[in-house]
Amino acid sequence: MADVLSVEQLQALLVKGQPLRDLSLAGGDYSGVDLLRARFERVDARGACFRAANLNGCRWDHCQLQDADFSDCTGQSLSLSDCAVDRTCFANAKLVGGRWLRCTGDGLIFAQASLRHLAIIEGSFRAPDMARAEMQRCQWADCKLAEFNAEDVRWEQVRLTGCTLVSACFARAHLQQCAFDESTLTGADFTGVNSLSTSFYRCQGVGLRACQAVLSKSIFSQACFPQADFSGAQLDMANLDQADLTEAVFDRASLRYASVRGVRAARSSFVAACLQGADLHDADLTDCDWRQAELEAVRATDGERLAAQRWTPTL
Predict the structure, then answer these.
(1) What is the rounded distance in angstroms from the CA atom of residue 107 to the CA atom of residue 85?
(2) Collapsed DSSP state (helix, strand, coil) of residue 268
(3) Rounded to two decimals, what is the model's pTM?
(4) Can you say whether residue 205 is alpha, beta or left, with left for phi > 0 and alpha for psi between -120 and 50 degrees?
(5) Which of 46, 115, 133, 224 could make an SS bond with 244 (beta carbons 3.0 to 4.6 A apart)?
């Protein structure tokens, strides 16, 4: 690997408009540098400082970005491929568009960043920090996320699908029209979330906590969250059809006009819960605790309808 480039040397190479390969930027200070449409391949930028740099159209392939500082950067269509991003800092960055493919790292920092139209695919991250970050119309696909810190985030139309999350924390997050479809959420914490029309379709996981969460019009159909804790949650007009919520806790929760058809919730607790107008057709509610529950206008299983649904013609 060559000697670390100075700012002047880097700028001279950038002017040529050619890909920069097998260079060392490790530990260098390139604050405020213009990296417009720069392309880096197999570059060592560990511990380098790019604070407030212009990242428009910038691309990094197979680069070492551990401990690099991209805080306060701005950029459109920033792309990373097969990069190491341990403790890489994008705090307060403003990024629009771009694609991150197969990146890995511990302690990636997006705290208070603003991210729009960004796609992160097949990444593997441990303890990424997104506290108070804003994301709009972004996508996480087929990612592995352990100890994901998303406290107080504001996500709008973000899709996190087919991902594996372990001990993720979304406490007090604002989620609007987001989707976690077909993801595994083990030990996920959604305490105090404020959400509208968020989808957990066919998600699974143990240890889900959504106490005091607002989950109005959310979709949990065909999800599997045994022993989930929805204490004090608002699930009005939510769709829980055919979900497995065995031994879940809905104490003091509100499920007004929720669709709970075919749900498996044996031995669950609904103490002081409100199920006004909820549709419980064909739900398995064996040995549930209904003390002080409000069951006004609940639509219980319709025997004739159930028989018709289960009827099988014979020759």
Answers:
(1) 8
(2) coil
(3) 0.90
(4) left
(5) 224
Write out the H or E segment, with its range, that includes residue 14. helix 7-15
Q: What is the pLDDT of residues 75-122, one digit of tens each?
A: 999 999 999 999 999 999 999 999 999 999 999 999 999 999 999 999
Q: Where are the beta strands (DSSP E) in 66-166?
A: 74-76, 79-81, 94-96, 99-101, 104-106, 114-116, 119-121, 124-126, 134-136, 139-141, 144-146, 154-156, 159-161, 164-166
Task: Retrieve residue 191's tokens.
Answer: 């305490």
| Distance from the first to the final alpha carbon of the chain | 77
pLDDT, residue 164, reads 97
Tell the burial category of 267 from Cβ atoms under 10 Å away from its Cβ (0-12, 13-18, 19+).
middle
Residue 29 CB contacts under 8 Å (≥ 6 apart), including other chains = 7, 48, 49
How far are the Cα atoms of 21, 168, 218, 261 from residue 221, in angstroms, in the given order?
49, 21, 9, 9
Tell me the backbone φ, ψ of residue 146, rounded to 5 degrees.
-110, 135
Distance between CA atoms of residues 268 and 207, nearest Å: 14
Query: How many C-beta neighbours within 10 Å does residue 297 have?
Result: 11
Q: Are 192 and 170 in contact (CB under 8 A)?
A: no
Instruction: Give strand pairing partners of 83.
Output: none
Q: Which two tokens stand for residue 29?
A: 């200070």
Q: In the structure encoding, which two tokens stand for residue 158, read together?
A: 């973000």
Q: What is the pLDDT of residues 6-43, one digit of tens each?
A: 999 999 999 998 999 999 999 999 999 999 999 999 99
Integer angstrom CA distances of residue 148 from 193, 214, 236, 285: 15, 21, 28, 34
Give the DSSP letter of residue 113: -
